[in-house]
Amino acid sequence: MLIERLDEPVKVRADFQGGAIRPLLFRRGATSHRVVTVNARWEDREGQQKIHYFSVSVGSGDVYQLRFQAGDLLWFADSVMMEA
Amino acid sequence: MASERMDASAGAGSTHAGARRIVHADIDAFFASVEQLKDPRLRGRPVIVGTGVIASCSYEARRRGLRAGTALREARRLCPDAVFIAGHAPTYRAFADRVFAVCRDLAPAVDAYLDDAYLDLTGTERLYPDLFACGQLLRARVRAATGLTITAGIASNRMIARLASRGAKPDGLALVPPGEENAFLRGRPLADLPGIGPRTAELLQSLGLETIADVATMGADALARLLGAPGRLLHERASGRDTRPVSPREIPRSIARETSFDTPAADPALIDAMLAYLIERAARAARRLGLLARTIAVHVEPDGERRVEARSTLAAPSALDGVLVAAARALLARAHPRRLALRRVGIELAGFLAAGGEQLDLLVAREREAALAGGVDRVRERYGHGALIAGRALALLDGHARDRYGFVLRTPSLTK
Predict the structure, then answer these.
(1) How many domains are contained in chain B?
(2) Which chain B residues have a beta carbon less than 8 Å from that of A55?
(3) Each residue of B300-316: pLDDT tens digit?
(4) Residue B110 has pLDDT above 80, yes or no
């Protein structure tokens, strides 16, 4: 398993209904990735800012870790896990 | 899932006059389970989390004989098809916090550690008349909230609850009804008793004592003659008695920070910078709790050698980086005189007292440093620890992994 650190800003289409956040699709560079499953979600803080983390499987089979910074409403792709 | 009651009669988990109702909840193969949760491709495969040594491994890896503490080199030899992951302590802490929040929703008193917690449900008899059902509820709620499985042991005291959960792992539930403690302990090996180290076990075995029941039969006076004051405590435990309360600790016993290096670190500047950084993290945690440390310890693990520790009492209690770094450097010189490459380095602050009782002259002498620490803490509270790097830790910028939390520590932070 290869884990590549990204820490890249990404554009995300997400569902915020019912107080829960669910990423549906994100664009990294020129490629759009459809979120097939949200495998895990957890929350943390960076100073006063609340950070929402999501581990998602995309159509290619890779698993991305996304983060949503609630303070500045920015999305990032933290890392991608690929089969070696 | 393993579910068991020692007494299958109806209401075995219900009330028993005067008995406490303690639950030990233990997250199964914690770090490895989080990784398997995050990436479904890892489920069913041996997963090993750690750098240098195994910090956690999945049950698939355990079936191949791997355990926490095994060197990764040995792990690769025993289990070449395992997936090796360095791990990410802040992620695990976030999951643990969620698990413990579920515990606190259910129980009036919770004592939480790194990956396990004790819950005291005494006094909740009307709310939870059946403890076994309550254990099932706890496990279901943790699973729903986090996706993780826990094993729970239920008994009238902490020791029996812990032994019960250990025997029901993974994803299990076990209940030892009040009054059944001795029957539960009978026949168990000495090593199951808390407080029995290898030397004590050897001494007891040389007298022909092989099981916990043998120790209980020996009598408290005889054990006290043999082992001193701890002998009486050992007899209490062997008889199934443990009166330790379950209460959230207001003052921790210790605050420890440590890390292993990806490749053994030989550069004294790098080791010194990491030492200072570890102190900085621990001192900030102490200041946040309003505590001053009286003692400090530094431990190192040279590559291929055993861990060495040096410990000292400070001239005056402190939570200031400068004071603690100076003390830690002196201890490092004692613990690490031969300048061997280090696999691991760590520090521990302990002997805490509440800030505010310092001598006035010490306060005046350290006024500027205390003001600086207060300012730095406020910036970090707002923007995160990684927002500022102290000059004494700058050498870590040259190659040490860094994320938004600051420099990456390969071992989870521990406040206990």
Answers:
(1) 3
(2) 37-39
(3) 999 888 889 999 999 98
(4) yes
